[in-house]
Amino acid sequence: MNIEYLKYFAELAKIQHYGKAAKALNISQPGLSHAIKTLEEEYGVPLFQKEGRNVSLSHYGKELMTDVEDILDIYLRMEERAAGMRAEEKTVRIGTVYPLAAGMVPRMLRESGATFPFVIYNHLTPEISEGLLDGKYDIGFCSDLLKSEDLEYYPIRDSYIAVVVPKGHPLEKRNAISLKDVADYPQIMFSKTSGFRKLQEQVFAAEGITIQPVCSAEEIEVITGLIGNGFGISVLPYMDIVHLHNLVAIPVQTSIWKSKFYIARRKYGIRSEQEESFFQYCKSIGE
């Protein structure tokens, strides 16, 4: 079956004139005649009948016309879907943990000279790992080592716990600090529905400190806003976003919590040249 010949068949059935149909199809009239003759030989029946200078569908042609229209409709939908898939394939889908979303990932995209279209999604490490494995993301930036034989991952930077204070705070000039030094200041924490709240509680518990927060919030953007407006300070895993506000992050000396950020992807897959280049650039940062 030649899909182009079926298109010619449908166009000739509509226009009912070889010369005009050939012009509409931007082919020669002999080329159109050859296509129709080939179809008639293939199906073993005449598809058109002459009516003076025009032609019309034979009764065989009329019976086949419905099927031809269905085939062409399916083919058009398939072409449209394939075009969408090609456009999507060129778009690099990046999943990143929140600490890197506002600063490091955009900066690496700029420094690597990335010109490809991309989409950035913010999630926690488990969601990013799952998204990489099921093909939702092409590249992931994660805060924990992903234990999967189907993924490759490389460290790109260390993470740490920091005390975040507003500019002008008495602790602002400290290069490092202990949790005991900050325990008496009003504390802002993540809400109990956030995955980061457990981490905050653990680092204080490791120092034998119990904290009752003055307020809490689900999102880091809200917490940084509360800090900036003087409601308190917060002990947070390091996040680039604090530098986008009028805030200071002071590393905590005594925290037992240590972690790294990783870049990850599926071990096998079809990759664009620019996607591969960006991955290798990010990988080289941690080497």
Automatic annotation (TrEMBL):
Q: Where is the HTH lysR-type domain?
A: 1-58
Output one GO MF annotation.
transcription cis-regulatory region binding
Keyword list, A-Z: DNA-binding, Transcription, Transcription regulation
Where do the coiled-coil regions begin and end?
A: none
Q: Which PANTHER family match?
A: HTH-TYPE TRANSCRIPTIONAL REGULATOR (PTHR30126), HTH-TYPE TRANSCRIPTIONAL REGULATOR CYSL (PTHR30126:SF39)
Regarding protein family, the annotation reads: Belongs to the LysR transcriptional regulatory family.
Protein name in the entry: Transcriptional regulator
Q: What is the lineage of its organism?
A: Bacteria, Bacillati, Bacillota, Clostridia, Lachnospirales
